Amino acid sequence: MGTIARASLRLELSLKRASQLSGHAQNSGRVLKDFIIFARKCEAIRLQKTATSLSEVWELRPNIFRDARGFFVESYNQARFAAAGITDVFVQDNHSSSVKGTLRGLHYQLHRAQAKLCRVVEGEALDVAVDIRAGSPTFGKWAGVVLSASAQNQIYVPRGFAHGFLALTERVQFLYKCSDFYDAADEHSILWSDPQIGIAWNVAAPLVSEKDRRAPALAQLPRELLPAYPTT
């Protein structure tokens, strides 16, 4: 390519680039405005993380946007939950419906341990997590959070904890995410009314399954059926 041809090509490319920059300049105000609106929305969608009586169990409260039509809530955002310290990858969603007085639990999986992220979309439930990790300084201790559809709050239950809940209203729709798949052969139960754990269910005769009714107390479980507390 000759000198004149190369100069002509450079001029053509410069003109095209100038045209592109001009178009960008014309749109820059709108782009900036859109970015500011987006940034403000991101700031508005915050996730409030509240400690419970167990340091690894958390209550989470997302912002709720309400107007005359109803409400909108971002119930799960992987990036926001990871920023809050919840980095589990959830692979299964479960949904149960319960009448008032139903108590489900206490359940856990040993080899395919599950972290859980729980919420209620109708009614209210007392949700409970029990530290059952052998060697843990809080072994046998429990934490509870009242979950409600109106508050849209959630509880994070980490691996190594048994989980259960009590339906407090006429109907409870309970949803939860799990970090591993359900495995019936790996599921274990602990008696909901274990006096050594001493959960304040405040109910004398809940509606429970036969399996949960016959569950052993925590002290009756051999160590090999309990998750281990990590030492590192």
Secondary structure: elements and pairs:
Blueprint: H1 3-44, E1 47-51, E2 58-62, E3 64-67, E4 70-73, H2 78-83, E5 92-99, E6 103-109, E7 116-122, E8 124-131, E9 142-148, E10 154-157, E11 161-167, E12 171-178, E13 187-189, H3 210-213
Could you list some keywords that capture this structure?
globular; 232 residues; Jelly Rolls; alpha+beta
Would you mind describing this structure in some detail?
The protein is of the alpha+beta class and 232 residues long. The chain folds into two domains: 1-44; 47-225, Jelly Rolls (Sandwich), CATH 2.60.120.10. Helix content is 22%, strand content 33%. The chain contains three helices and 13 strands. The protein has helices at 3-44, 78-83, 210-213, and strands at residues 47-51, 58-62, 64-67, 70-73, 92-99, 103-109, 116-122, 124-131, 142-148, 154-157, 161-167, 171-178, 187-189. The strands form three sheets. The chain has a six-stranded antiparallel beta sheet, with no helix packed on it. A five-stranded antiparallel beta sheet has the order 9-8-11-6-13, with no helix packed on it. A hairpin with a 6-residue loop joins β1 (47-51) and β2 (58-62). The N and C termini lie far apart (67 Å). Residues 2-9, 11-15 and 35-40 have low confidence and may be disordered.
- As residue ranges, the low-confidence spans are 2-9, 11-15, 35-40
Q: What average pLDDT do the residues reach?
A: 88
The strands making up the biggest β-sheet line up spatially as: 1-2-10-7-12-5
How are helices and strands ordered from N to C?
HEEEEHEEEEEEEEEH
Secondary-structure-based class equals alpha+beta
Oligomer: single chain
Number of separate strands = 13
CATH architecture of the largest domain: Sandwich
Strand content: 25-35%
Main β-sheet description: 6 strands, antiparallel
Helical segment tally? 3
Fraction of helical residues: 10-25%
* Structural domain count: 2
